[in-house]
Amino acid sequence: MKALVNRVSEFQKKARDAFEKVDSLDDLQVFYTQFLSKKSELNAFLKELKNLSDAEKKELGPHIQTVRLSLTEGFEQKQKELRKQALDEKLASDWIDVTKHYPFEKGAQHPVSQIQKRIEEIFTSMGFEIVDGPEVETEWHNFDALNIPSSHPARDMQDTFWIRSDQKNPHKNSVLRTHTSSVQIRKMMEDGVPVRMIVPGRVYRNEDVDTTHDATFYQVEGLLVDKGISLAHLKGTIHKMLSELFEKEVKIRFRPGYFPFVEPGLEVDIWFECTDRQGKKKSQWLEFMGAGMVHPNVLRNCGVDPSEYSGFAFGFGLTRLAMIHYGIEDIRLLFSQKKDFLSQF
Ligand code: PHE
After folding, report:
1. What Å distances lie between residue 179 and 14, 157, 216, 222, 339, CA to CA?
2. Between 20 and 30 A from 285 (CA), which of 61, 69, 105, 214?
3. Domain ranges across the chain
4. DSSP summary character for residue 125
5. Contact 337, 217 (CB under 8 A)
6. Are strands 216-226 and 252-256 parallel, antiparallel or unpaired?
7. Range 323-334 average pLDDT
8. Which pLDDT score, from 0 to 100, does residue 177 have?
């Protein structure tokens, strides 16, 4: 018993000395292992207690517990201090100045997106719904259902990126959609008629790229089918849309045009006035879009009775409209990622 009491006092003194020297979390860990863990001498003392008499246990037991408690308290206190110190040091060395780049360089919407947003606002105000469709389309939706069978020469009007063309069944072949007209079919087959929608979206053609052509561009399709719809509704809608967009009364004209999915088919031109670089006034008719009355075959393909319903459809190039609207002469600039150019809009 006596020997054990002495060893405990010695242990206590050793622990105190060691504790004094603790200077880091690593030191503290070493201290813990040596003086408080299961492997420590302190734990061995507790085991040895078992061999003593009850009276001795009563005396020495609480003493060992007191020693353990005071070491544990010291350890926890020190651990808190050292952790705080480490955190403070890290914060002092690791900080970043979030205001360094102030004022921030602001991004902006791309000119084509700006026009798209405006067009969407105008059409929604006229009760049109905005609809989406897949860019990888079946041959059937892109061509056959739109009254363009595989033998039809009109297929050559649109140079196509084929993804799959080896199947007899046009539902199984796929293309990058050459126009947004395929969504006319999807929408009528899914929701039936009456319908009043626009489809802004990306289309793909195997074009030679020049100042006015790109292989990827944006179109807006329009479709309105109901009872008693005529070309007058089409003219009114387009005139209203363009006048709102250009914030003045615009002049448009209809010319006969051919698209297999409309009958009669038209080209719509817009009277365009601008001033060229030399300051000379330039005015001309610009071809703006294809349009017409939805062909009865197209309505039938979508399960709509053409003796009951009629409608108009149109499709224009959003990219082209952005060029007209902002006076941009080269389509390639629009998708060039050139910040100098894009930040002008
Ligand atoms: N889809 C035609 C094109 O891309 C445009 C169009 C749409 C024409 C609707 C008539 C009716 O050229």
Report:
1. 86, 11, 11, 12, 29
2. 214
3. 2-94, 111-342
4. H
5. no
6. unpaired
7. 87
8. 97
For a ligand 1 pocket test, name from 261, 293, 298, 319 the mutation site with the most ligand atoms within 8 angstroms of its C-beta: 261
Which ligand 1 atom lies nearest to the CA of residue 157? 12
Question: Is 158 in a helix, a strand, or coil?
Answer: coil
Tokens of 17: 């000395």
Q: What is the largest CA-CA distance in the chain?
A: 118
Q: Which residue type sits at 219?
A: Q
pLDDT digits (tens, 9 = 90+) for 262-291: 999 999 999 988 777 788 888 889 899 999
Q: Which of 259, 267, 295 to mutate to test the pocket of ligand 1 (most atoms within 8 A of CB)?
A: 259
CATH number given to 111-342? 3.30.930.10
> What amino acid occupies position 234?
L
Segment 64-106, tens digit of pLDDT: 999 999 999 999 999 999 999 999 999 988 888 888 877 877 7
pTM for the predicted model, two decimal places: 0.70
